[in-house]
Design brief:
The protein has 351 residues and is α/β, with parallel strands linked by helices. The protein has helices at residues 46-50, 54-70, 87-99, 107-112, 117-126, 141-154, 170-178, 235-248, 270-279, 289-292, 299-312, and strands at residues 4-11, 29-30, 77-81, 131-135, 159-166, 187-188, 205-212, 221-230, 258-261, 284-287, 331-338, 342-349. Strands 4-3-5-7-1-8-12-11-9-10 form a 10-stranded mixed beta sheet, sandwiched between helices. The protein has a two-stranded antiparallel sheet with strand order 2-6.
Length: 351
């Protein structure tokens, strides 16, 4: 079965809306990368915007851009993924509980704090009454959503809107920094890989993809495989996993033109990426988290980037880890892990 990605939508710390493909790189010297938000008034009217939280605006914009590009009025299903859900509303509800001693609470922040708020908002906007599901599997959230979408396409569905989203809020950022997930000092994001210390930079974003069983006029790539590996025993297991994945898809290591890695500047995580690169010695190497930061569904940015690379047949210099000289990109493998626990592989091919 062939699965085609016929539309994409992305709101991220970079300029990624309106069909832009890293035309200009956003640089920030900080420990967190917040989204570069578009002018929402070009997408929604003022009444709609007043009812939306920040993450809802970001995610709905990405979803609507994806839908419009694919030319699909209403998908057969909406499947989303999120690692931490709507954190801003969750924090607002908890603060209200403390401030008001759990009495006379407004239900609005609680209702909007649930993980499926975004997929519901998309369905309401589209007036879509079909299958609607949100996966919340931390570092596997997008991959779980993609897997569900692939199963539905194999059962005869035609168009599945699939995406993932996560946001930064100060409360969760402070907690995770205390857990040594992030760096202790500000760093220029484009210099992230030159800082061989512990910790990374926080990120956020929303990415959406229209998966279809037929190729459309805006086809970006074919989605060949989505596979996950939970808590590998050692780095060698990642090295050995890649040839088996490729063999299952009737490919060899030499067939992979580009390996897109989830390097995040944390010295504790480098061994896994070194092993993945060693498994594909002839492939070009690229990375993406210096542009979007680290978050549970960061592979959404990587998949958006991979789709753009496949369609435009060019690898932006800002993501290259090694000089890339190939003129034709037929196959791309994305490898990412979250906290060395959730390891994900996504394989793309040219349309």
């Amino acid at each position: 079965m062939s699965v085609f990605i016929n539309g994409v939508g992305m709101v991220s710390p970079q300029l990624t809306t309106g069909g832009q493909f890293l035309n200009a790189v956003v640089e920030r010297e900080d420990i967190k990368l917040l989204c570069t938000e578009p002018d929402y008034s070009t997408w929604f009217d003022a009444r709609q915007l007043r009812r939306m939280s920040r993450l809802t605006r970001i995610s709905l914009t990405a979803a609507v851009e994806c839908i419009r590009e694919a030319g699909i009025d209403s998908p057969d299903a909406i499947v989303t993924g999120t690692g931490l859900g709507c954190m801003q509303d969750s924090a607002a509800f908890l603060r209200q509980m403390i401030r008001q001693h759990e009495e006379a609470l407004s239900p609005t922040p609680f209702i909007q704090s649930t993980h499926n708020t975004i997929s519901a908002a998309i369905a309401l906007y589209l007036k879509a009454h079909a299958y609607n599901l949100t996966c919340s599997h931390r570092g596997f959230s997008l991959e779980s959503a993609l897997t569900d979408a692939l199963m539905m396409l194999s059962e005869g569905k035609n168009h599945i809107l699939t995406g993932a989203y996560d946001e930064i809020i100060e409360d969760s950022f402070v907690i995770q920094q205390r857990m040594n997930l992030y760096k202790k000092r500000s760093i220029l994001n484009t210099r992230l890989f030159a800082d061989a210390t512990e910790g990374t930079i926080a990120g956020e974003g929303a990415a959406f993809f229209m998966l279809s069983n037929t190729s459309g006029s805006h086809c970006y790539a074919r989605l060949l495989a989505v596979e996950t590996l939970y808590k590998p025993a050692d780095v060698q297991q990642v090295h050995d996993y890649i040839p088996h994945l490729l063999n299952r898809n009737k490919l060899s290591p030499d067939d992979i033109d580009l390996l897109l890695l989830g390097k995040n500047g944390d010295a504790r995580h480098e061994d896994f990426y070194h092993q993945a690169a060693a498994a594909l010695p002839l492939s070009g190497k690229a990375a993406f988290k210096h542009l979007c930061g680290e978050f549970p569904s960061a592979s959404g940015f990587a998949l958006w980037l991979g789709c753009q690379i496949m369609r435009n047949q060019t690898v932006p210099e800002v993501v290259q880890l090694t000089p890339f000289e190939k003129k034709e990109i037929k196959h791309l493998l994305l490898y990412n892990h979250y906290k060395k626990i959730n390891h994900a592989f996504i394989l793309l091919a040219a349309c």
